[in-house]
Amino acid sequence: MNFPTRLSLCLCAMLMAAAGAVHADGMIPETSVVIVNESEGEASITVRNDDPFPALLLVTLQNVPEDEEPLLFLTQPVWRVEAGQEQRVRFLLRSGVPLTTQRLKRVLFEGVRQQPEGSNEVARVGVSVRQNLPVIIHPKGLVRHRSPWEGLQWRVGPETLQVKNPTPYVVRLAQEIRLMPGNQPGYLPRTYVLPGETLDVRLASPVDSGTDQVRVFPATVYGYAVDDFHAPILRGDQ
Fold it and tell me: Looking at residue 142, what DSSP letter applies?
């Protein structure tokens, strides 16, 4: 066996050994979206420690860049959670803030592993998995809408396409859209459209003259994918 071959085998063995020592761990929330109803003033979510060791659960609330108003706070931002155990995280809505539309925030869950002292466990490379979830604040008295993307208005100009959300609902959908019937791709700047917003769609070329629909790929309030949706494209003063 020549030297390059021996070197390759040694490297492969080292990589396989390292792969056996690397594992994914983290805090796993029970749902993919947190809903806070104004009528209840609070919400909670269960987070499970899937790591074989105790871990600190760190919870951080984040504002989206388009809405910096602090509307929520946590009863506690840090917990110690035993291996395989669950922790209930509670969110409280700040009082005195009138809500007329849904509001969007985010919450970050992160686990910091705590390997027991004196453990004989072979040292391993821990990969802490962060879970970044949307938080939707739902106003009191607002009727729930299972498919708010139906209310989006798509309008084409000479070289641009815009989407407007005249509804009081946060609409979540994939960034890529398709203009039909030519299947021309377009891209939204992000995966949500806030109430009252108008966003420009990025296109690689001007809109085809025969385009009359846009095909979108929405997500429900709870983050599950649903069937694609075809919406009409408005032109001029329509």
Answer: P
**Rg of the chain, C-alpha, whole Å:** 24
Stretch (H or E) spanning 5 = helix 3-21
- Beta carbons of 218 and 203 less than 8 angstroms apart: no
Whether the CB-CB separation of 148 and 171 falls below 8 Å is answered with yes
3-class state of residue 10 by DSSP: helix
| CA gap 75, 92 in Å, rounded | 7
Look up residue 20 and give its amino acid: G
Query: How many other CB atoms are found less than 10 A from the CB of residue 172?
Result: 21
Q: Residue 63 forms beta bridges with which residues? A: 105
At 204 the pLDDT is 86
pTM: 0.83
